[in-house]
């Protein structure tokens, strides 16, 4: 996982939330690396919150086509931390699979959710090419829209 974070940072492929304030943008790479090296996604969310790394407000469009300001959701830190930690966890599992001569990883529900998306439930148990998944998740844009990393999906992979 650490190696993948380093690769992403060196390739300018780390995701930076638009909700980060300036301090958040500066602290994010080192916090993410520390979380994957020695902590967890929970620690990462806690650090984002306790260090005040996100803005308190954000702009939003209104149904009438206008513009307003609203509070950043109280779950923003957790959603970001879980999603990005899982991105690098999946990359680590895929790299391990390839190193062990395995071609596929398997989708499972890593975190129980009160409500499940049908799209997520249909993925559970499916085999995904480890090489293809690595290629997809090493790209920031692809990783943000990847079906496994949709916010709050609770999905991940195993060998």
Write structural notes for this entry:
- The protein has 159 residues and is an alpha+beta fold.
- It has one domain.
- It has seven helices and five strands; from the N terminus they run H-H-H-E-E-H-E-H-E-H-H-E.
- The chain has helices at 2-10, 22-38, 41-50, 76-99, 118-123, 130-137, 140-145; strands spanning 57-61, 67-71, 104-109, 127-129, 155-158.
- The chain has a three-stranded antiparallel sheet with strand order 4-3-5. Strands 1-2 form a two-stranded antiparallel sheet.
- Helix 4 (76-99) crosses helix 6 (130-137).
- The longest helix has 24 residues, at 76-99.
- The radius of gyration is 16 Å and the shape is globular.
The residue ranges in which pLDDT falls below 50 over 5 or more consecutive positions are none
- What is the CA-atom radius of gyration, in angstroms? 16 Å
Give the DSSP E fraction (strand runs of 2 or more residues): 5-15%
* Series of secondary-structure elements, N-terminal to C-terminal: HHHEEHEHEHHE
Write the layout of secondary structure elements.
Elements: H1 2-10, H2 22-38, H3 41-50, E1 57-61, E2 67-71, H4 76-99, E3 104-109, H5 118-123, E4 127-129, H6 130-137, H7 140-145, E5 155-158
Antiparallel strand pairs: 1-2, 3-4, 3-5
Helix pairs in contact: 1-2, 2-3, 3-4, 4-6
């Amino acid at each position: 996982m650490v190696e993948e974070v380093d690769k992403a940072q060196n390739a300018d492929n780390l995701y930076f939330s638009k909700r980060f304030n300036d301090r958040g943008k500066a602290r994010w790479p080192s916090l993410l690396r520390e979380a994957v090296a020695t902590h967890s996604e929970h620690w990462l969310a806690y650090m984002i919150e306790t260090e005040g790394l996100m803005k308190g407000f954000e702009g939003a469009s209104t149904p009438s086509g206008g513009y307003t300001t609203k509070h950043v959701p109280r779950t923003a830190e957790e959603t970001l931390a879980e999603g990005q930690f899982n991105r690098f966890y999946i990359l680590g599992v895929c790299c391990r699979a390839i190193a062990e001569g395995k071609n596929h990883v398997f989708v499972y529900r890593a975190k129980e959710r009160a409500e499940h998306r049908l799209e997520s439930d249909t993925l559970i148990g499916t085999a995904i090419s480890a090489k293809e998944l690595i290629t997809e998740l090493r790209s920031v844009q692809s990783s943000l829209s990847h079906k496994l990393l949709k916010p709050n999906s609770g999905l991940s992979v195993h060998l």
